[in-house]
Design brief:
Double Stranded RNA Binding Domain; 5 strands; 2 domains
Length: about 190
């Protein structure tokens, strides 16, 4: 699944750190999924969606119960649903903080012979407000040995964008590929 590298250029407001981070994250995702052909796993996001779906389901149940049994009768159900909703929002916060940890992509690299378990690649990044340094971390988990390796790169965003806010993917691609190759080469050495 190759992608045309010379697509319509991505243009962002170079003073908007959120837009800069999103463009860089999308570029890294494009390298692994579109160019290298890894398949994207949505299991991490599905966990978040499951927690949110349960919370919304509780709220909907409370509203419907209150509709059929007006307030004095629905008091205990409303209190229970409100308390459970609050607890689920706490669970969601813990999930986002300790499980997702800023991971924006989980990609699976299938064994060519399809005999071994998939290797897992995870990308996480950070770009703080009023900071010009973009930090990208690539995690690799070997499907066969469960050995985990990590590589990081931190560079100023102006290395990837020109003065007009156009994302220079051709300058970004080699950096992502180097991270991927470094982790893959460590795999071959082991």
């Amino acid at each position: 699944a190759t992608s045309n590298i010379h697509e319509k250029p991505v243009i962002v407001d170079k003073w908007d750190s959120g837009a800069l981070k999103n463009a860089l994250d999308d570029g890294a995702k494009k390298v692994l999924v579109d160019i290298n052909g890894y398949s994207e796993s949505n299991a991490l996001i599905d966990g978040r969606l499951l927690i949110c779906t349960i919370a919304v389901g509780l709220a909907l149940f409370a509203v419907l119960f209150d509709f059929f049994y007006p307030f004095p009768q629905s008091r205990n159900v409303l209190m229970t649903c409100a308390l459970l909703y609050f607890i689920l929002m706490g669970v969601l916060t813990v999930y986002l903080t300790y499980m997702e940890k800023g991971i924006f992509l989980v990609a699976l690299e299938q064994d060519r012979a399809k005999m071994e378990p998939d290797n897992k690649w995870m990308l996480s990044s950070s770009l703080r407000k009023y900071d010009e340094t973009y930090h990208l971390t690539m995690h690799f988990i070997d499907g066969k040995t469960n050995e985990e390796r990590t590589a990081c790169v931190s560079k100023r965003v102006d290395n990837y964008f020109d003065e007009n806010g156009i994302f220079c993917f051709d300058q970004y691609l080699p950096i992502i590929e180097k991270l991927r190759r470094d982790l893959s080469d460590e795999k071959k050495k082991a």
